Amino acid sequence: MTLIFGHRGAAGDYPENTMLSFKAAKAAKADGIELDVQMTKDGELVVIHDETVDRTTNGTGFVKELTFEEISRLDASYKFTQYKGGSFIPTLNEVLEWAKQQIEFIVNIELKNGIIDYPKIEEKTIKLIYKHSLQKRVIISSFNHYSLVTCKEISSEIETAILYMEGLYMPWKYAESIGAKGLHPHYHAAKGEVISQSKSHGISVRPFTINDTQLMQRLINEKCTGFFTDFPETAVELKLKGD
Fold first, then answer.
1. The one catalytic residue among 7, 132, 145, 184
2. How many helices and strands, by DSSP H and E, does the chain display?
3. Which end of the chain lies in a sparser environment, N or C, as judged by fewer CB atoms within 10 Å?
């Protein structure tokens, strides 16, 4: 069965990486959500995609140069002005506190440390995962594969997944080499052969970001492990039609 993950929540219809968006994905009966983690000046893990707050909030500046108190006051309604005044940047702790109350709900945490090297982001993230007893319901992904190795060294039981853009040769072997159980390729790199071979080697494949309904259908038909979409409601409806 193909699992549906709400990309940054239900980012096609709600302000991305906000509690509004995550709750909308859950209401759409998604199997899980994907979110992004950066770190504030005072070491708080916050859920936001970009290294700066400029695109998605009414503020400016790098996340790493703002305190959590400064970030918490920003409006994160992004282009969805109807949610102005009700959308904020949540902490990772806040999201996990909510997620642990959702039965069998999966959280994919993407560590955004490919550009900025946030000190001890792996340790801090994993500590929060264990605080909420979510180690069996969390996947940690990153484009920084050194970071994934660090995560595996800290905790062998939390699944890690490799994010990548272009075609990798025999990516399931590469995953095995760094202890990852998942591949999260850009959809261009998610050929049918990659999906089938990876699954036969015990490696899950979850492409991103799948917003085209024909592509959703193809992945469901191929029994891909899962995929990330900005429109989880549409994806869930397609999957239910095939069941």
1. 7
2. 9, 9
3. C
Q: Hey, which bits of 40-158 come out as E strands?
A: 45-47, 106-111, 138-142
| Domain CATH for 140 | 3.20.20.190
Count the Cβ atoms, other than its own, within 10 Å of residue 35. Answer: 25
Total number of domains constituting the chain: 1
CB 111 within 8 A of CB 131: no
Distance CA(42)–CA(238), nearest Å, equals 43
Q: Quote the domain boundaries for residue 57.
A: 3-242
Q: 215 and 187 in contact (C-beta within 8 Å)?
A: yes
186 is catalytic: no
For 8-21, the pLDDT digits (tens) are 999 999 999 999 99
d(CA 215, CA 221): 10
Query: 7 catalytic, yes or no?
Result: yes
For 58-105, the pLDDT digits (tens) are 999 999 999 999 999 999 999 999 999 999 999 999 999 999 999 999
Residue 43 DSSP SS3: coil
